[in-house]
Design brief:
Order of helices and strands: HHHHEEHHHHHHHHHHHHH
Shape: globular
Number of helices: 17
Structural class: mainly alpha
Strand content: under 5%
Strand order of the largest sheet: 1-2
Largest sheet: 2 strands, antiparallel
Helix content: 55-70%
Number of strands: 2
């Protein structure tokens, strides 16, 4: 079956609905046979990969627009207040030169009550999802029930399957109605199963394990959650808010393990290790949360505590832009404080280059001390 799907590609996917139904029936009856279950999910993974190659709603490609990433909230400054007051001042009533009576601002007068006689414009219904997309959705939904398997290799395969299916199911390639009706409920269903793979990697056993006990599964789960966050957007804001304390604890463990690896192997060799890749993926998840999901003011301190340290100083891609979108002054303060405290460890040259250069002026080091 795997060879058939690979050779035929997308053309055969719409005709596999009965076969996929039979596969899940076999999985329900023979889930105790690891090799059989893994082979069947390899077939399902191939179906998902082939079905996700072509957008199912590409009837009018020019009409589809990909939304820009959700930016975090902007801190209100005095400049924003002045600009708002000037805008309100422009919208006051003007005096008519002919009658001397006030007349409304054109920008406000154009806002009128809707005319009861005006009929709403009728638009064509969006095209229904293709058969291939329906099968991908069904496979993704049914896969979540098998994530409790004790086999780490099978859990990684299932997480990879889910991650492969989400881009084709996301609202970037669907209408808003499809987003509300199918994708967001799917995200709500996936969320507890994926987060359980991060914080409780072996829920079916009685042994207490830590997330770092199975780094390959943790890395795959973080990659899958990053994709879910990118496509789920602000729908996941409250869920991330509840999950933030656990994310802080996990980030601290990963960073400590990564730094220990660097002391043992050296920074060059450690950058290729699994511990470093897992920490880097954790940073990517946090950046995705800030940019695509957004954060509340209560979450800002925790985000700066995690991303404002090693991730910012190492120049990890996306970290500076995400934090500057929250508070650029705090980013500058963090860099100066960290640079001042680490000059004894060989960071002097790096921070010396960041000083402003003006003829006739000498800029001193910024010093910090606890009060």
């Amino acid at each position: 079956m795997l060879m058939m799907v690979r050779l035929c590609g997308l053309a055969i996917i719409p005709y596999l609905d009965d076969l996929i139904e039979s596969i899940f029936a076999i999985l329900a009856s023979y889930h105790g046979y690891p090799r059989l279950v893994e082979s069947l999910f390899e077939v399902l993974n191939a179906v998902v990969e082939e079905g996700a190659k072509v957008s199912p709603r590409a009837i009018e490609p020019a009409a589809r627009t990909i939304p820009s990433p959700r930016r975090p909230y902007k801190t209100i400054t005095i400049i924003d207040v002045v600009a708002k007051l000037q805008l309100l001042k422009k919208r006051t009533y003007h005096t008519s030169p002919s009658t001397g009576s006030p007349e409304p601002d054109p920008e406000i007068s154009c806002i009128r009550e809707p005319d009861e006689t005006t009929q709403p414009s009728t638009s064509e219904d969006p095209p229904p999802p293709s058969k291939a997309l329906t099968l991908v959705y069904t496979i993704t939904q049914q896969t979540t029930h098998h994530l409790s398997t004790p086999s780490p290799a099978l859990r990684r395969l299932l997480l990879t399957l889910i991650a492969s299916s989400l881009p084709s199911l996301s609202p970037q390639s669907t209408t808003q109605a499809d987003n509300d009706a199918t994708f967001l409920p799917l995200v709500a269903t996936l969320w507890p199963h994926i987060t359980r793979q991060i914080f409780s990697p072996t829920p079916s056993t009685s042994q207490t394990t830590t997330p770092l006990a199975d780094l390959p599964t943790l890395l795959t789960a973080l990659q899958t959650l990053t994709i879910i966050s990118q496509h789920g957007g602000s729908f996941l804001l409250s869920r991330f808010s509840d999950l933030l304390p656990k994310l802080q604890n996990l980030y601290g463990q990963l960073q400590q393990a990564m730094l220990h690896e660097e002391k043992t192997l050296g920074r060059s060799r450690a950058s290729r290790s699994l511990k470093f890749k897992t920490w880097d993926q954790m940073v990517g998840l946090l950046v995705t949360m800030v940019v695509y999901v957004g954060i509340t003011r209560e979450m800002e301190d925790a985000v700066f505590e995690m991303l404002g340290g090693e991730a910012l100083l190492r120049g990890r891609e996306g970290v500076r832009d995400a934090l500057e979108g929250l508070n650029p002054d705090a980013v500058w303060l963090l860099e100066e404080e960290e640079g001042n405290s680490k000059k004894e460890e060989g960071w002097a040259e790096k921070w010396e280059k960041r000083k402003p250069v003006v003829d006739g002026w000498e800029f001193k080091d910024v010093g910090f001390q606890e009060v």
